Amino acid sequence: MSLRFWDCLDHQTFTDTACEVPYQQIKGDFFPGFDVWVRRDDLIDPIISGNKAYKLFFNLIEAKDRGAKILITCGGAWSNHIHAVAAAAAAAAAAARFGFQTIGIVRGERLAILNASLQDAQRFGMKLKFVTRTQYRKRNQSDFLHEMGLDSGAAYFIPEGGSNLLGIKGIQLLGKVIEETVPATFDQMWVACGAGATFAGFSAGIRNISVIGVEILRAGDSIFKEVDRWIKRLNLTAPEHLEKGRSGTLLSSDRLSDLRLRLLNQYHCGGYGQYPKVLADFQREFEGQVDIPLNPIYTSKLFHAIKNSNDRGGGQRGARLLVIHTGGLQGRRGD
Ligand SMILES: *Cc1c(COP(=O)(O)O)cnc(C)c1O
């Protein structure tokens, strides 16, 4: 991955880079009876990895086209997205074609020593602004920047996680790249869901593989509703194609095979950022047997779900599964 698409924000360079991302087959018997492959989007860029790279790309083009001087975004203290925005702006500035200043609005109070993720962001040139959880709750309101005392005039605001229409457009591009580059025919594609924008983008970009999203937080109905809202907004597919999995009420496999999109909500392991021993043990075992590093918040829960789910392969042994590695390995330092 030597091409630096951030330097030029060129569509073709980005697409070419996405087309080079490797697919890795999991050898051995970690998933007995299933043929599991991983698309290593954690490798798309050494720093700006996984789905955040795709969600950012068109946002940066838009910011540049609008002549914005400042990128403002927000997230938690270990946010992969904040880290990615800071790094991408630094890459663009280093190429000296255009530059963005960056401001990261961080949920919670500033600790005496910044964590490794925020230290990186600061080193990449980002200014950090810490806000209370109550203030942070207003992050999706139109007057949020004003409330934070920030001038929105010259700024381009990217919402938490890069989850806006342009972010989803980047994921759609990834979906198309996947359909063009898959090394085999897959029965299912699995992805971790936080806000659900990535899953929503795949519902738009992927036509021939059923997509299963694993909710990594205790979200109630919110991810389902968010995805449904995006799908309607993108006017892509009838909402009845989206079915929610509830623990204990798995759909029968023949029904499942009719459904192109599913969200599973019983594999959050206690909620966002929760990392119980069973998950830690799983991650250690996985990384010991399979040569792929996982992120404790997202991809370890994803593979844990695949290992434990009856939905795997639509209940059909021998099924071939594609798992999207959405990156975020910088977050491992939070362990
Ligand atoms: C942000 C993130 C996700 C979740 O993406 P959404 O679009 O919010 O669902 C998944 N995996 C990793 C590693 C992430 O950083």
UniProtKB/TrEMBL annotation:
Gene3D superfamilies: 3.40.50.1100. Its cofactor is pyridoxal 5'-phosphate. Keywords: Pyridoxal phosphate. Residues 33-327 form the Tryptophan synthase beta chain-like PALP domain. The keyword Transcription does not apply. PANTHER family: 1-AMINOCYCLOPROPANE-1-CARBOXYLATE DEAMINASE-RELATED (PTHR43780). Belongs to the ACC deaminase/D-cysteine desulfhydrase family. This is Pyridoxal-phosphate dependent enzyme. It comes from Microbulbifer spongiae. The lineage of its organism: Bacteria, Pseudomonadati, Pseudomonadota, Gammaproteobacteria, Cellvibrionales.
